[in-house]
């Protein structure tokens, strides 16, 4: 009889293709889209700007300045244009005017006023980088004339050699960055892979609710009750197939992240630490997801209620849990909300073993939180289901 209950659940589950699509296709698409949409760290740090120059003075000082910009490492190209059109945020318009000539010759000792037109879509960090590159290059163009006046370099020197001479006279400080152990910001795949695995596992509420509600409304549970099957056995054997599906979700989406994302041009995720740690996190996450899913399934009387309550709850937990918006870019005023979401506990646990050398003790707090919350909800669900089960009658 008990084996038949498990077989029944699998048949019901595989008869609901839309429910399976929610569990596998939706998180897969999210994982692929977010992994490929978020730029990698190397892409964020690469030379970014295309400068369209309107050169009003057209002399050796303005040409030297433009060459210095190219040498700065932040500029992709510098082109002359009379009426340029800015078609993307990384394109900027620079007007080199008489103010620059006065500054380069030392006649204006305070500052240089360059006209710079930027796209309103340009990121603030990139804007600061661009202005810094312009400032350094303008200062070096002025230093060149000072060195010529002091007869430390020859004005007839080829431009490339002049740049080397100026760079040697005004070396840029090299800052040695030492990584701390305070934490590592995950890249696109390290954020998306565990995030959407967790999101998909928690959406087990949809097919779980549908099958339970169908059984209530079709008198299937009443028929099973006539065979003297306890409420505990019904829920236990209902949860087993969904626990298995959760582990299939985990394995499937892990393979997508490891093999498919890099094949489509995304970053490669490196699976470090023992696979046992990933398995433990997957099981603990499944317990929390099943607890929440069963609790919502028992509360709802119709599939419409399950869709609204189950889907809405998962979306809220994902929004505040760092699934949809990475926690490290949230404002300080809202980051405390992440601690209320079991999805965040699971995400922190997975990222701990993805980003750092870890042991079981490092993820124990997350395992305990997920297992305890899921167990409490399962216990409450069983108590509620017993009340409903006693009232069932075969009409």
Q: Can you offer a commentary on this structure?
A:
Strands 2-1-3-4 form a four-stranded mixed β-sheet. It is mainly alpha-helical. The model has no long low-confidence stretch (mean pLDDT 80). It is 65% helix and 6% strand. It folds into two domains: 2-40 and 187-390, no CATH class; 43-169, abc type-2 transporter like fold (3-Layer(aba) Sandwich), CATH 3.40.1710. It has 16 helices and four strands. Helix 4 (60-71) links the parallel strand 1 (49-55) and strand 2.
- Our Rg estimate from Cα atoms comes to 31 Å
Sequence stretches where pLDDT stays below 50 over 5 or more residues: none
Class of secondary structure makeup = mainly alpha
Number of domains: 2
User: In sequence order, what are the helices and strands, one letter per element?
Assistant: HHHEHEEHEHHHHHHHHHHH
Question: Which shape, going by the Cα principal axes?
Answer: elongated
- DSSP strand (E) fraction? 5-15%
Distance between the termini: 22 Å
Average pLDDT works out at: 80
Instruction: State the share of residues found in helices, binned by percent.
Output: 55-70%
**Arrangement of strands in the largest sheet:** 2-1-3-4
| Number of contiguous helices | 16
User: What does the largest sheet look like?
Assistant: 4 strands, mixed
Give the strand tally. 4
Short description:
By secondary structure, this protein is mostly helical. It is about 65% helix and about 5% strand.
List the helices and strands and how they pair.
Elements: H1 2-15, H2 17-37, H3 41-45, E1 49-55, H4 60-71, E2 75-80, E3 91-96, H5 98-104, E4 115-117, H6 124-149, H7 159-169, H8 188-202, H9 205-217, H10 220-225, H11 231-263, H12 275-299, H13 303-320, H14 332-335, H15 342-355, H16 360-390
Parallel strand pairs: 1-2, 1-3
Antiparallel strand pairs: 3-4
């Amino acid at each position: 009889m008990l084996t038949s209950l498990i077989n029944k659940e699998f048949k019901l589950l595989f008869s609901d293709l839309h429910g399976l699509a929610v569990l596998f296709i939706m998180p897969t698409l999210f994982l692929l889209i977010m992994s490929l949409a978020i730029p990698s760290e190397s892409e964020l740090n690469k030379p970014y700007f295309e400068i369209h120059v309107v050169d009003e003075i057209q002399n050796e000082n303005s040409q030297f300045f433009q060459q210095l910009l190219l040498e700065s490492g932040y500029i992709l190209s510098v082109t002359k244009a009379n009426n340029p059109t800015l078609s993307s945020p990384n394109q900027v318009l620079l007007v080199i005017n008489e103010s620059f000539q006065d500054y380069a010759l030392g006649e204006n000792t305070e500052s240089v006023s360059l006209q710079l037109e930027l796209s309103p879509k340009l990121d603030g960090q990139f804007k600061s980088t661009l202005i810094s590159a312009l400032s350094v290059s303008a200062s070096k163009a002025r230093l060149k004339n000072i060195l010529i006046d002091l007869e430390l370099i020859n004005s007839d020197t080829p431009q490339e050699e002049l740049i080397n001479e100026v760079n040697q006279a005004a070396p840029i400080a090299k800052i040695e960055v030492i990584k701390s152990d305070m934490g590592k910001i995950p890249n696109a795949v390290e954020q998306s892979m565990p995030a959407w695995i967790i999101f998909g596992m928690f959406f087990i509420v949809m097919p779980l609710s549908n099958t339970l509600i169908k059984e209530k409304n079709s008198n299937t549970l009443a028929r099973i009750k006539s065979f003297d099957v306890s409420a505990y056995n019904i829920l236990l054997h209902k949860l087993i197939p969904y626990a298995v599906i959760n582990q299939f979700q985990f394995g499937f989406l892990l393979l997508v992240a490891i093999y498919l994302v890099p094949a489509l041009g995304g970053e490669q995720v490196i699976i470090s630490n023992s696979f046992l740690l990933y398995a433990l996190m997957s099981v603990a996450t499944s317990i929390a997801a099943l607890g929440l899913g069963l609790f919502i399934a028992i509360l709802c009387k119709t599939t419409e209620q399950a869709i609204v309550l189950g889907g809405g709850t998962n979306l809220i937990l994902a929004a505040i849990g760092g699934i949809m918006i990475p926690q490290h870019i949230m404002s300080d005023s809202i980051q405390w909300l992440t601690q209320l979401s079991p999805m965040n506990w699971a995400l922190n646990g997975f990222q701990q073993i993805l980003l750092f050398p870890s042991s079981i003790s490092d993820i124990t707090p997350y395992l305990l939180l997920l297992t305890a919350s899921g167990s409490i909800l399962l216990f409450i669900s069983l108590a509620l289901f017993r009340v409903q089960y006693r009232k069932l009658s075969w009409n």
